[in-house]
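Tokens help. Our protein:
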Amino acid sequence: HAYILIIDDIQDRSKLRRGNKTVHEALAQYAREHQFHGDVQHAGVALALNAALSGAHAAQVLLAGLNVPEELRIKVLGIVNLTMVTTAHGQTADIMNELLPQTDMQAVEHALEWKTAHYTVLNPLCVGMVLAGAGCEDTDAIREYALHTGKVFQITDDIIGTFGRDAETGKGTMDDIREGKRTILTSYALEHAPQADQAHLRRCLGNAQLTAQEFVHCQHILRDCGALAYAQDVARKHAGAARKSLDEYHLRWSPNGVSFLDALAQSLLQRTA
């Protein structure tokens, strides 16, 4: 997880993670303070990428050394590696959504599923289930719940990313707009906000020099055009679909398991960080 966050922060040009400097920024500062030769910002990125690559392989070593039957180890390695391929595809889609002149809601939904839902919910559930001896029918049955719950997580994360408080989130709330990230919030606003507001939002998205005043105006636009309310409603619908999926397969799981998973999906609607 740590190595993926290092790469994500580089690609998002993020300066903060969990209230501290991101890895590439911290290493660039280290290079600057110790008077390294050359481009210290590039040095920070290069060293961070090496750390990420080392983390990726270290994770594989840990999985390959699990004290479980060989068949389960092979399954887990397959699940995790396929998940990372899917996640990389989703991250690519997310970046392309920023770069293309037009991005529709379906493209944003695809990124939600490929980048977040597989990695954040489906993968850990399937890995745990396989190690506990679950078969393919069980992991197939949990898929719908996991994908809906993963989308709830990402939608609420996007809302927090724009409307949260830096002290709680540990990240800069201006980052998503400054980066030009296409979320359900911004995509809805670019379709439904008044033309003047759409124009302002387009000027701000991807603007590395975004000011606090411009950002506050963006927040007002997202609220006033109904984008915030729409995103919250979509998140609630996905949480409802996750609950419905659990109801459909409730005989397959223990009552405690169903209650836990349902509470997990619903709790994501209330998260603030």
Remarks:
- Strands lie at 16-17, 20-21.
